[in-house]
Structure formats: C-alpha cells, structure tokens
Inverse folding.
C-alpha cells in the first residue's frame, strides 16, 4: 500500500515486518528516529521483541552480537562516531559469522564535528567482513532491509549486513513508498534457523583465541563467502521481484549506459540527482549515463567490468576519502581494469563531504570536467576562499 | 515539478508544515519529497524545510534554490537573510506577519501575501503556531491543492482538540487570502472604470 513516510519511520516499519527478537541501539543523529520509532513499536506491543537500552554503541553492537549468537534475529542502527565506537565489535560480528543486520544512517566523521551526510563512516569499516549495501531512495532502503536478513542468514553465508542510507537526505525525508504487507514479508523471509548458536545444553565457543596456525583461514573463509554473496544477491533480487512486484537491490544498476560516452559511478541518494541530470543532458543529445553501485561489499568486480568496459570516460563520484591516497571507490574501480586490454579513462571526484549540498550543477560539472586524460581526486564545489591562510 | 521552500527557526514546526503540505499533495495523487535542512542543531537556529513535488517520484536530492513558492514562518528571518534568494519570477510568497519587518523588495510579477498567521493561531489554537494558518493561506494563494486535501492532511497529522483548532486556523488563513484577493480584484475593476 502506498504511504507517505519519513525514511526512518519506513525503515523501522520494514524492520518490524522482519520480526527481530532483539533490538539494541544507542541514539545518534541522524539514526535516532529509526530506533525511537522501533522503541515505540515495541512499547505499543506491535512487535514481540526486547529493546535493550545501552550506554554506548560499543554495548549496542555487543548486545546484538550476543543475541544473534544465541540464535535470535536482531537489529541495530547507528551513524558516524557511533559506528566508529562499534568498530571493534563490528569486526568481531563478521569474524564470528553472525548475521546481525544494521542500518547505517551515513554521516561524516569528526573532527570537525559534523552531523550531515557523507559515506566516510561505512567506508571506514569496509574491510570488516560485513556485506554493505547502499540505498538510493526510501523505497530501496525498505527493500534492502528485508533482503538483508535473507542474505545474511542464508546458511551458506552467515554474515552481517549493513544497509546504508544517506543521513537526513533519506532518514529525515518523506517519500511515497509501497510498504509491503506482513504476509508478503513472511512468505519471503522465513524465521531465522541458525546453523549454530550458544546453548548451555550444547556448549560452543565463538571467537576464541586462535594462534597463527588458524587465523588466516578464518579471514580467508569470510573472504570466500563474499564470493558466494555475489552469487546470492542477484537471486535474492529476482525472488524479491517475484514476491513484491518490483526490482530492488542487486549488485549494480545500469542507468542509460547504452551508447554512453561519459558515465558516473556512484552510491546512494546522489544517484537520484544524477539520473535527473542524465535525462536532461540526454534530451540535448549528450550521451551520458550512471552506474549505481548497490552492493559495495562484496565488491561486484565482474558486474562493474562488464558494465563499464566499453565506456570511453568514467567519473567515480564519492562521498568519502582515503586521506594520503586516492579515494576508495576510485582505487577499486581502477584496479578492476588493471592489466585489461580495454579500459575506460577513469577519473575520480570527491563530492558532498559533511553534507555539502550536491546540486544539478555539481553533477553537470563532473561530466564537464571529464576530458581525454584521467583526473584523480578532484573536489567538486570546494570553496577556495576557505583555504586561504589566515593565521 | 513545483518547489516550495519554508524559512523558519528550529522548533517552530517547519518540518511539520512540510509534512502536512506533502501529505496534502500525496492525497491528491502527487509524489512529494519533503525534507529539512538543519543549520546548527539547536532551537531558534534558522533552518529550512522543503517540499519538492511532481507527478512522478522525485529523484532530485538537492536543496531548493529556485522556489516556486516561499513560506516565511518567521518574519524576523527577513532581516539578515535573503529569504527571496532564487525566488522564481512568477513565484508566490506567504509571509507570517510581524510588525516592523516589511516585505523585502521584489519583482512586480512576484505575488507576496502577508498573513497574520500568529494572530490567527492565538485565536484558534491559543499558541503562536501559525503554520496551519499559513498553509491555509498557501492553498488560497496558489490554488496548488484543494482546501479539503489540506483538511484531510491536518486530520491525519493531529489528534484530539488540536484537529479542530488547526482546521479552523487553516480555514481562517485561507479566508484571509480570499478576502485580500477579492479586494484586489475590486480595485482593478474600480481602476478600469
């Protein structure tokens, strides 16, 4: 049924439909509305779950680590500094192979303190072993949460999934969404049947000390499983479409790539603005397109290669940096084409850090700057006047 | 596509205003994207809320720089801020009246309506929350949505006695503009004679 909902409300409702038994979170802007709403839902008796109040994000992550380890479907959500405070536990959750589902309401990292959107938080834990997916709009945020449980809890996978949605832009925006029914979600997402769990009758140790004889294999195994995730996600996407009647999720989305000369690669809500710019430029005969990365971890190397190999010029647009080097997504897209006979000219642009607004002109500027030579690490909408020495 | 920019201070209900307006459009089958932009995260800080609405889902995520319509919830923002920045040539602005804050300079093609929304709110709600009165004025000034859709949206948003209070406030805001419009028309006729 179509409803007009705030992104946070919509995600809370989607999580309710997935019937987690434990939710633990610590409020942080711009994630707060999601967990406030879920706390209300539980208090109103609309979800039979325990909401565990904690004193920090480190504890929130530890609680859901523990609850999933005992075989209970769980949920948490955070942003920015909260994710950083969780970081230690985030790696543990992946290493222990526990399918925790988390919303990351993407926000910039301090200092300077900034509550607005970019992707530095999620990118900072990209190597943890979590599956990471990015929503373009509120509908996709709803749909990805429902898919996330299927992906993470698949017996062959058993890994945590982080659903990323842009802070404020999606968490605090209202949009018309088609909220699935409980029957639909129930038919798509069965109850969680863990492969293993903490059980006093059948004692088990998770995450023990392993010496150099064993550690490498544990990390290798997570890495191998990510290859299985790459195979599973398109199947989940197809099954989702059959059940819910719309395409959502997947590895990548190609938007007007046929015959495109210049293509932007991006993640999250900026893809919407980019699509509008593409339609407008296409109507003037400019051959431009977008490759939206939905799944960032595992990184869909083959799908991206196939989508971009015949494109002359590619602009990687990212809301995160790797200070002292090229930005993560730029480096990764370039590495896909290393040693390949055919490769686009791949340029990289940093955009929208700390909530700097991304306008139609910002996107046009990216297409405009794409020339015959690759550009690395150019910032869009930078204010040079703020960089002048004043002391 | 139509774009509405609301100028307010944090705590004055600009997000609620955008939500109610967005929901009224939604009732009429449109696709609104209503969203806030916070400045400093504290009460009283200048902030904006926006509604971008179209016949198909809105994908554009930027703030609104060239609004078709402006809602100025707090006229004190007219001093120190250029609330009319980027205002469309044939745009319509609704300003919550406040003594000694005159209407800024504008093009003759732009229509500006000053509404005593806080006075209406004091009368109807008992608190100076002029948002629903401003929305009533918006409906009358722009003909964008039906008054009934606004009423439905107010009923959806509020509960208890706040429903009737806000319905009345919005109706008074609406009537205020209709009266102004009628007076303006009479003037034009008189001049023509």
């Amino acid at each position: 049924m179509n409803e007009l909902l705030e992104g946070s409300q919509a995600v809370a409702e989607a999580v309710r439909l997935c019937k987690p038994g434990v939710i633990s979170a610590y409020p942080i802007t711009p994630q707060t509305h999601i967990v406030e709403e879920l706390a209300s839902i539980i208090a109103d008796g609309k979800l039979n779950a325990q909401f565990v109040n904690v004193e920090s994000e480190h504890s929130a992550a530890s609680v859901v680590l523990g609850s999933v380890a005992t075989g209970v479907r769980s949920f948490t959500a955070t942003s920015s500094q909260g994710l950083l405070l969780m970081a230690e536990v985030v790696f543990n959750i992946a290493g222990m192979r526990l399918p925790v589902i988390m919303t990351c309401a993407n926000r910039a990292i301090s200092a300077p303190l900034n509550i607005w959107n970019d992707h530095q938080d999620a990118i900072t834990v990209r190597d943890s072993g979590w599956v990471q997916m990015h929503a373009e709009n509120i509908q996709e945020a709803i749909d990805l949460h429902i898919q996330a449980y299927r992906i993470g809890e698949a017996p062959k996978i058993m890994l945590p999934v982080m659903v990323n949605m842009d802070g404020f832009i999606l968490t605090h925006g209202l949009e018309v969404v088609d909220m699935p029914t409980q029957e639909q979600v129930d038919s798509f997402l069965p109850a969680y049947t863990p492969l293993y769990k903490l059980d006093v009758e059948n004692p088990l140790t998770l995450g023990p000390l392993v010496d150099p004889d064993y550690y490498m294999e544990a990390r290798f195994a997570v890495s191998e499983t990510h290859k299985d995730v790459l195979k599973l996600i398109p199947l989940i996407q197809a099954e989702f479409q059959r059940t819910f009647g719309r395409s959502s999720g997947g590895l990548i989305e190609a938007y007007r790539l046929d015959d495109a000369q210049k293509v932007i690669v991006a993640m999250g809500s900026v893809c919407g603005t980019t699509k509008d710019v593409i339609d407008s430029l296409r109507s003037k005969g400019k051959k431009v397109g977008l490759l939206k990365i939905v799944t960032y971890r595992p990184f869909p190397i083959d799908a991206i290669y196939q989508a971009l190999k015949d494109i002359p010029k590619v602009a990687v647009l990212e809301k995160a940096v790797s200070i002292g080097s090229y930005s993560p997504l730029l480096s990764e897209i370039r590495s896909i084409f290393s040693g390949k006979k055919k490769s686009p000219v791949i340029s990289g642009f940093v955009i929208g850090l700390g909530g700097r607004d991304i306008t139609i002109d910002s996107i046009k500027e990216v297409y405009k700057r794409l020339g015959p030579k690759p550009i690395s690490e150019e910032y869009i909408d930078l204010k040079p006047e703020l960089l002048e020495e004043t002391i | 596509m139509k774009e509405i920019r609301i100028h307010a201070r944090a705590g004055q209900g600009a997000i609620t205003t955008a939500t109610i307006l967005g929901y009224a459009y939604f009732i009429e089958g449109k696709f609104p994207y209503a969203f806030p932009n916070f400045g400093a995260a504290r009460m009283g800080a200048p902030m904006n809320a926006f509604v971008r609405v179209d016949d198909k889902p809105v994908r554009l995520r930027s703030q609104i720089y060239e609004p078709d319509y402006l809602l100025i919830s707090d006229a004190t923002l007219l001093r120190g801020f250029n609330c009319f920045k980027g205002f469309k040539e044939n745009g319509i602005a609704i300003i919550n009246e406040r003594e000694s804050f005159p209407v800024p300079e504008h093009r003759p093609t732009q229509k500006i309506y000053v509404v005593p929304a806080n006075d209406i709110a004091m009368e109807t709600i008992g608190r100076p929350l002029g948002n629903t009165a401003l929305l009533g004025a918006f409906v009358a000034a722009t003909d964008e949505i039906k008054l009934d859709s606004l009423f439905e949206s107010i009923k959806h948003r509020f509960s208890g006695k706040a429903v009737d209070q806000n319905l009345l406030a919005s109706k008074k805001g609406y009537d205020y503009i209709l009266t102004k419009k009628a007076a303006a028309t009479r003037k034009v006729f008189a001049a023509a004679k």
In short: Chain B has a mean pLDDT of 94. The CA atoms of residues 89 and 107 of chain B lie 7 Å apart. The domain at 2-192 of chain B is CATH 3.40.920.10 (Pyruvate-ferredoxin Oxidoreductase; domain 3).
